[in-house]
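Dear colleague,

Thank you for sharing your sequence with our group. We've completed the structure prediction you requested, and as agreed, I am returning the results in plain text so they can be pasted directly into your records. Please verify that the sequence below matches your submission; if there's any discrepancy, let me know and we will rerun it promptly.
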Amino acid sequence: MRAQLAADAEVLSAGRRDAGKRLAREVSESLKKLDLPHARLEVALEPVDRADAMPCAATGAESVELRFSANAGEAPRALRKVASGGELSRVFLALKNALRTSERGAVLVFDEVDAGIGGRAADRVGALLAELGAAHQVLCITHWPQIAAAAAVQLRVVKRTQAGRTHTRVERLGPEERVEELARMAGGARVGDATRAHARELLRGAARSRSKGTAPPPRG
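Please find the predicted structure tokens below.
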């Protein structure tokens, strides 16, 4: 029985090594497109304690740890200890994109996924979120019009004071309301014809991407 357990554990370890390398490579490539050009993800396999001379523990011969480095020249360390909020959101986005065909129907919530990125990266983040939306329900809090334009549905959070009390509402935006909101996100408080035209182009661009198949139609 010990011999059979050792053989099974080695099969599991070999599968983990192979899958870990492929996952790390794909996620690292996605992170470059998400404005983290020097980021690296590694899947580390650490030996576990084995009781009573057994060839492995209940979960195999090793434990799995994700390690991350955001900057050139820095060795990857435990993701949970070194990643900032924005970095963690983008790693999560890259991981879910790499694994999107292995599971369906999850609810994914992204907050601060746009922290510290530029306009070009925002376009790519929006496209990746739209791809994920084909397999999952994706909720994203964002201040970038490029990301908001990629969504199938856009909601606006409004805070008002009435009779000395603060009330928060969530409003679903119609087509023209989306244009106004995207223009406000792009141009600030003063919305003009130029920012409205930019907002309409963002929506048309997102629609073209979906029709060409570069981003499957998002469900949310």
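Summary note from our side: Residues 2-33 form the longest helix (32 residues).

Kind regards,
the structure core
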